[in-house]
Amino acid sequence: MKNLLLQNISKHVSLTSEEEDIIFNAFEKASFKAKTIVIKPGDEAHFTYFVLKGILRSYTIDDNGTIHILSFATPGWWVADMYSYLTGKPAVLYVDVMEDCDVLILQRCDAERLFTEVPKLERFFRILTENNLIANQQRILDKMALTAEERYEKFLQKYPDIINCLPQKYIASFIGVTPEFFSKMKSNLLRKK
Amino acid sequence: MKNLLLQNISKHVSLTSEEEDIIFNAFEKASFKAKTIVIKPGDEAHFTYFVLKGILRSYTIDDNGTIHILSFATPGWWVADMYSYLTGKPAVLYVDVMEDCDVLILQRCDAERLFTEVPKLERFFRILTENNLIANQQRILDKMALTAEERYEKFLQKYPDIINCLPQKYIASFIGVTPEFFSKMKSNLLRKK
DNA sequence: ATTGGCTGTTAATCTATATTAAGAAATAAA
DNA sequence: TTTATTTCTTAATATAGATTAACAGCCAAT
Questions:
Q1: Domain at A10, CATH number
Q2: What are the pLDDT digits (tens) for A121-142?
Q3: What are the UniProt keywords, alphabetically (chains A, B) (predicted)?
Q4: Span CA (A114) to C1' (D5), Å
């Protein structure tokens, strides 16, 4: 029986069952309680998580103490401090747990070993990273070209499922406005319709 | 003698001279005059450029007609409509020529053929995309957490060379402010010091 | 039941940045 | 050189969104 990880990988490359074993064995399993900070700036976070259950988020805290959310990770998604994971330098982000979670952990050094052993996995990560890059480019342009309202509507379309299990101030942080303004904006939207 | 492209690739993977030939032959060469629009939204832009000479930029135009610059590409850099290149769908960006340029063109289908033929090239593009992703993530956070002034100072540090050969309104567009505000901001910075 | 801590709302005020406009300076074209 | 076009600056005004503050609702812990 295929687990979520292999199911996920097989969306982009097809693996033999030996390859599946090799890959799966490179991951370690872990569980964390809600509110656990699993990565913080300065950590040597040379690994990435694949989420099996629960929700995590990655974010920074600026000089005023304001949180800016970079990403949410629900089951089937990856989350890491990409900077630390890819460069081997200390982390720049926080990653914490919003709902009790189970994750699979892949160390960078194991990933690199696997890339040579199973080139199809390197292909998978290339495609994953490519898709991630496109999404991030679009987000940059959206932040420059769209109003908060328009960004919110895009968010609704893109993540309709995640909305109800998420305090709305987190959505505000993700789209880049304060919770107060977000609240006002939402009631404006309701009044309009 | 190695050209700029092979030099660039060899920063991340080492190629035999046969591999170098295979790769180099997959590219087509082209030259464009300044102001040429080489990609526009709707185009089937299933290729990427490697810049040998000159400067290009990628951008969108919003409903008000305002330009938002996503990237500049100088010699040694890549530029494409990543969305069209990677998904095979119509382009969403403009790419145009800021200074007469020579580029090498790689079609997506040739890239995919090469990835199988020369796995090291797939590795190179994986790494390239990874680095690009990190930079884009940081840019998202910078736009949310930093003031325009701070973003400008980061830009100065990151691209000190490109600044003098670039109309400053393009820098304004890249960091996400109007040229008028950018001008004011710059004179404020001077007064401070 | 009561306390305390999150979360969401509303409203007043404030600020960074946008918009509009008009002239100056620089570049390119003729 | 003169003209035209693009770029830069300055200043007045406008606005999207931030800040501050006060309160209400909700849920978990005591």
A1: 2.60.120.10
A2: 999 999 999 999 999 999 999 9
A3: Kinase, Transferase
A4: 58
